[in-house]
Amino acid sequence: MMQTGALQAAMNANDFHFQRILRELRRHKLRAKFDGDEALKRAYIEQETLILDRLRSMREAVDEALLDTDRVAGIAAALRSGADRARDLLDRLKAAERALDQVKAAAELALSILRTVTGLIG
Amino acid sequence: MLRSAGLVAILSCAACSTGHVLPEIDAFGQAVTAAAGAGERLFPPGQTAEGVAALRRQQIAAAGGVLVVEDGPGGLCGLPVSPGSLDPALPPPRFDDICRLRAAVAADADATFEPRLPDTDPAVVARSALTLLAALGDYAEALAALARSDAPQSTATALGGALGALAALGSAAQAGIGGTAPSPATAAIVSAGNGVLSATTREALEARRHALLREVVRAADPAVADAAQTLAVAAARTDAAARDRLYAALLATADDASPGDAAAMAAVEAAAARTRAAEDSAAWRPFFQIAAAHRAIRDSLDAPADFARLAEANARIAALAGSVRALVTAVEDGRR
């Protein structure tokens, strides 16, 4: 199966390509309308409909690739892993009281500042 | 001198607290949770399970298969569980422990036949969407819990109390050595030092929380983006046909309008208004916005001093919350 990223890139390239054709078709369709050429206008509308149908089915192909069941299962597993990681980190953060090295360092700093301050002023 | 320089460094560090520059991750979590709730209404779980089961039966039947009843790992299938023969110390088996249903086809009757269900069948799409909604909601809740944790604050408060006692001890020691009570200036500096230390500790813990959040958000961002897009695709399928018809009507109305016909122009404008209303409130939009909001949170966490990124993240979260509210209202009103 084609990678979804590659499919999306191909889709975007197609969109760009078909947009140019559609713009040109619609310009001619408008010209036909102003000229009162109903048959020509209808011919352009038919072409326009064909292109839109083609684009629709290509977009549906991209959607189908995105909805691949195995891909969805992979994404869900990655999200669950992220959630587990967040919970794990939260537990560790909550255990910050046990991060005695930080507290101890701060307390030692407190003592040293206290000694400096009291030594300088006292 | 060295200690004075250290104090200056601590003071400057205390001024750059990261605690108040976090994006509104809690609001993001709430919006995602609300979107998940609305999504569950878009894809009713009961219908989904039955729909997938029916589809699976059809696929097995199409392959000429049957369902075989077999023993499960917990015992023999064919007789009711008999409590008299069970070990009271062990949990009694349930039906699914003793009986298994397995699909089989004639080509290889001993092997389990598992039909591949079409990914785009509405029931399968709904099942996929519900799987992603549950996983995304779980992630967002865990992330929000990490973001709103008060551990840094409570630890700093506890430490502040300990340092207060330490400062008092230092003052008492000084009074004992010098024989006099500390001067007001000494007391003020001791108090300031205590405040700096409390802030320093809080800063250290806030910085740690910030680093943890950044790690989680960075790691999860690709999955969140994929999930958001896939959910958007799934949600889009719920109203794609209706929107398609509106666009076709808009083009047809415009094509049929003759030059110089004001009434026809009004009809085109009305058709455009109907299409705009449907497109701009389509069910897929809130899900798609989840990716943008999460990416903005990631970028903001990467540059904590960048207030433009913080504002961008919060704006994305607010936009997401607004879209989710609209979707929830539409679902509750039965418009979806």
Element layout with pairings:
The complex is a heterodimer of chains A (122) and B (336).
Chain A: H1 4-35, H2 38-66, H3 69-94, H4 100-121
Helix pairs in contact in A: 1-2
Chain B: H1 2-14, H2 25-42, H3 45-62, E1 66-71, H4 95-98, E2 99-104, H5 122-147, H6 151-178, H7 184-256, H8 262-280, H9 284-302, H10 307-332
Antiparallel strand pairs in B: 1-2
Helix pairs in contact in B: 1-7, 2-5, 2-9, 2-10, 3-5, 5-7, 6-7, 7-8, 7-9, 9-10
Word description of this protein:
The complex is a heterodimer of chains A (122) and B (336). Helix content of chain A is 89%, strand content 0%. Chain A is built from four helices and no strands. Chain A has helices spanning 4-35, 38-66, 69-94, 100-121. Chain B is 73% helix and 4% strand. Chain B contains ten helices and two strands; from the N terminus they run αααβαβαααααα. A two-stranded antiparallel ribbon of chain B has the order 1-2. In chain B, helix 2 runs antiparallel to helix 5 (122-147) and helix 3 (45-62) packs across helix 5. Chain B is flat and about 80 Å long. At the A-B interface, helix 1, helix 2, helix 3 and helix 4 of A face helix 1, helix 5, helix 6 and helix 7 of B.
Structure at a glance:
The complex is a heterodimer of chains A (122) and B (336). Chain A has helices spanning 4-35, 38-66, 69-94, 100-121.
Written as H for each helix and E for each strand, in order along the chain, the element string of chain A is HHHH
* Shape, per Cα inertia axes of chain A: elongated
User: In percent, how helical is the residue content of chain B?
Assistant: over 70%
Order of helices and strands of chain B: HHHEHEHHHHHH
Structural class of chain B: mainly alpha
How much beta of chain B, percentage-wise? under 5%
Q: What's the average pLDDT of chain B?
A: 79
Instruction: Work out the largest interface and the residue count of each chain.
Output: A-B, 53 and 75 residues
Q: Strand order, main sheet of chain B: write it out.
A: 1-2
Beta strands of chain B, count: 2
Query: Radius of gyration of chain A from the CA trace?
Result: 33 Å
Question: Per the principal axes of the C-alpha atoms, what is the gross shape of chain B?
Answer: flat
Task: Count up the helices of chain A.
Answer: 4
End-to-end separation of chain B: 70 Å
Which class do the helix and strand fractions of chain A yield?
mainly alpha
Quaternary? heterodimer
